[in-house]
Design a protein that fits this description.
Layout (H helix, E strand, L loop, with lengths): L18 H10 L3 H14 L3 E4 L21 H5 L6 H11 L4 H12 L11 H8 L3 H11 L12 H11 L5 H7 L2 H5 L3 H7 L4 H12 L21 E6 L2 E6 L6 E4 L3 H6 L3 H38 L1 H6 L9 H8 L3 H9 L2 E4 L2 E4 L7 E2 L7 E2 H13 L9 H10 L6 H10 L5 H11 L3
Parallel strand pairs: 2-5
Antiparallel strand pairs: 1-4, 2-3, 5-6, 7-8
Length: 440
């Protein structure tokens, strides 16, 4: 066997993710508020970084509040703001027809209501605050447990779930036994729970499925109405030549490279000269990175607005389907860049201040020339339910038929899924609520 050595030349491309590249990627998904915090942190570490923030201008009147977060419901933002938990609970208490004395005492219960919908104080303290005895407090509480949604004014988790089980007519003796042993369920001790309830796992599983369908914090559905507002990162206005998009410069920080006598003093030594050059280069890079972030954000926002002009004119029912790849191809960047830019940005439009991510929707085919976005279809379902006759609420099958008449083919399970996403009860539950509220 003959052995020999040889040299082979080849070319290979690779991307080295440096610390500066990682920071540049992070800048793309920062809103103005986070960007300011980041630049201020850099300014503390680098004497040559100077951050300037213009005085914040007030938002124009009529602009809806903004909500962030990946789990934020885009349709909720496109709809009119609902009442707060306190306002809703007050209206529900007024419908109970309490006597003047009990209605006055009920204010103590309303004051004790937590964002979860539970009572945040023991009943004896509530009775003392309302100027009533404990027996009267128990009587008023029993009436308050009849408000919608079921579970409000509960004193603990078990009571909250029991009220909902009664409402849904699923409170069997086994279900009640499970509620009495919730600590075992929380510890995932299903075998111990089965023994405590004197049953087996086969009988226990369907009860646990029913239990998981209930809402442990019924007051949380009202949290969106009271969430704080923050200024948008992009602002859409209509001009003579169409829709215009601009950065919200009233909250947009800018980076300047500071030049003063400190530079001359530091450069007197070789070590000081090296440090100065390094810090100045970092400051210049940060200045360029922020400018690139602003330019990319503006390009993405402008392309989104260009494609969603019908929504800006007419509202949520005209939100067209759009995916990240469309925007990326249009402005010549990678799809991941568009994803990062749209993750934390808020955009102010005539329809309200929304996350930029809210404009991206899957498409649902129809019989027309254009497709409907999933968000637009959910908005149509919400409108149908809002306009229904309380005496004859629309079933999911009826909604499917009505959608088909409009050229939109949906499966019944799709309607049920969208209805749940919109926090719309079933037709049976809506009929029961209408009877309770006197609307039917």
């Amino acid at each position: 066997m003959q052995l020999s050595t040889s040299q082979i030349l080849s070319q290979r491309q690779s991307l080295v993710v440096t610390a500066q590249l990682q920071q540049a990627i992070q800048l793309l998904q920062m809103g103005n508020h986070d960007l300011l915090s980041f630049i201020e942190e850099q300014a503390e570490q680098n004497p040559f970084v100077e951050v300037k923030v213009p005085a914040q201008a007030p938002l124009p009147t009529g602009v809806a509040g903004a909500r962030g977060g990946d789990d934020w419901d885009r349709i909720a933002a496109l709809a009119e703001e609902g009442p707060s938990l306190y306002a809703h609970a007050t209206a529900e208490v007024d419908r109970l027809g309490l006597s003047p004395e009990h209605r006055q005492a009920a204010e103590a219960f309303l004051d004790a209501l937590e964002p979860s919908g539970w009572l945040g104080q023991p009943l004896d303290l509530i009775a003392m605050a309302g100027g009533i005895d404990l027996d009267t407090a128990e009587e008023i509480l029993a009436q308050l447990h009849g408000v919608e949604p079921a579970g409000l004014f509960a004193r603990d988790l078990a009571e909250c779930l029991r009220l909902q089980a009664i409402e849904n007519e699923i409170l069997t003796p086994l279900f009640d036994a499970v509620l009495k042993n919730l600590p075992l369920l929380a510890a995932a001790d299903l075998k111990g729970l089965a023994r405590a309830c004197d049953t087996d796992m086969d009988a226990l599983r369907p009860v646990l499925r029913q239990l998981r369908s209930l809402n442990p914090k019924p007051g949380a559905i009202f949290e969106g109405s009271t969430s704080g507002q923050r200024p948008p990162d992009l602002i859409v206005t209509k001009g003579d030549d169409g829709w215009n998009v601009d950065l919200n410069r009233s909250t947009l920080p800018t980076v300047h490279v500071r030049r003063n006598e400190t530079i001359k003093q530091l450069r007197t030594t070789e070590e000081g000269k090296t440090y100065t050059e390094d810090r100045i280069n970092v400051a210049r890079w940060l200045q360029r990175a922020v400018e690139h972030r602003n330019m990319t954000t503006l390009k993405v926002g402008a392309e989104v607005v260009k494609r969603q002009s019908a929504f800006l004119e007419h509202g949520a029912s005209h939100l067209r389907p759009m995916i990240l790849r469309e925007i990326a191809d249009a402005i010549g960047v990678h799809e991941s860049t568009v994803s990062r830019v749209t993750t934390g940005m808020l955009i102010q439009t005539p329809q309200g201040t929304l996350p930029l991510k809210a404009f991206f929707n899957a498409a649902l085919g129809n019989k027309g020339d254009e497709s409907n976005s999933a968000a637009a279809v959910r908005h149509k379902i919400k409108q149908m339910v809002a306009a229904e006759n309380p005496n004859r609420p629309l079933s999911d099958d009826t909604i499917v038929k009505m959608m088909k008449e409009d050229g939109i083919d949906l499966a019944r399970r799709t309607v049920a899924k969208y209805r749940e996403m919109l926090n719309i009860p079933s037709s049976v539950q809506r009929r029961r609520q209408a009877v309770v509220s006197g609307a039917a």
